[in-house]
Amino acid sequence: MGYQPNPRSSQELNRYIRLLAMLYRRIDDRNRMAVLCYDLARMALLKDNLPLLFVNVALVWRDMLMFNDKKALDGMQMITKVIQSACADFCQNDPKITQTYKLLVELCGWPALKESIPLPRRLKEFSGILLSDLYKQLAAVQPVDSFDDLRINMVKAFELTYYRINDWKIVYEDFILPVLWQHMNDPHLADTCLELMCLLVRTGMSAQPCDQPRRIRSAAAREPEHIGIITIRNKLKEALHITADCSDDDLILQTTAAKGLMVLSNEQIQLALPVVIWYQNIPDRVRQQLPSHLEQDIRTLTDVYKREIEPLVKRKGSK
């Protein structure tokens, strides 16, 4: 499990972080420690003192946050760069935090504040890596597990960057349109671009009133969605093309598109129906290869549709 504390105070949170860091260091569990670092940056509130949270980690296990700007194609180092830039950007809003950041400079070799790269520039740096010939070559040469680790961490680095920026305009205009959209048909990048699009587009969706049942969440109760959401949904629908000779690459793309539409339906059943239709029409051999959690979600959606929406459609049609 990741970091999910419910602290009563800032001091309690800091003690909790140090305790986990000491436990993971004692058993030399670098994977769980890496998850803790990611979750701290991803789940901490935007107003939280981010540098102080990571000082707790650095005092116990500074190797986990060591900065190496020469490792461009290191997925874990990409996440460390996002954490560093986020901490530095936080200091720009509150000069009192500067002294805390200097501890991370001393402990982990982070760049000084005046030399730090802001988060929007990190996006351009990571985009260059994603689109580089070297990245495509590694996809063909590296062992599958090794490249998957790089790809997964790169996706996480992008997601974390956009979460900390917290600006849909930058997400859509500076990355989704000029980078992801333009490379959806590249066989080397399509699955990564589609996965990133599904993750990042959630930042542009309107919030739903969670205290209302799903069936009565009307259009009137929803805030207008940001520009581009409908267009992206349509692009994901296009990826759900059905072929009798569905290749492994096609299956990956279609599965990612199905997951994306489920997420981007924003709990509106009608928007997710293309996934149900796709599921009903794919060959059995393809259906057997789907992730179990996706299949379960589609079945749940189908049951809800038959129970709540289909009767309404039939009554409307009989009038």
How does the SSE layout of this entry go?
Elements: H1 10-26, H2 30-43, H3 50-61, H4 75-93, H5 98-108, H6 119-130, H7 133-141, H8 144-165, H9 168-180, H10 190-200, H11 229-239, H12 248-264, H13 269-281, H14 284-287, H15 292-318
Helix pairs in contact: 1-2, 1-3, 2-4, 3-5, 4-8, 6-8, 8-10, 9-10, 10-12, 11-12, 12-13, 13-15
Summarize this, please?
The protein is mainly α.
Protein described:
The protein is an all-alpha fold and about 325 residues long. It has 2 domains: about 1-165, no CATH class; about 170-210 and about 220-319, no CATH class. Helices cover about 65% and strands about 0% of the residues. The chain has helices at about 10-25, 30-45, 50-60, 75-95, 100-110, 120-130, 135-140, 145-165, 170-180, 190-200, 230-240, 250-265, 270-280, 285, 290-319. Helix 1 (about 10-25) runs antiparallel to helix 2 and helix 4 (about 75-95) packs parallel to helix 8. The chain is globular and about 60 Å long.
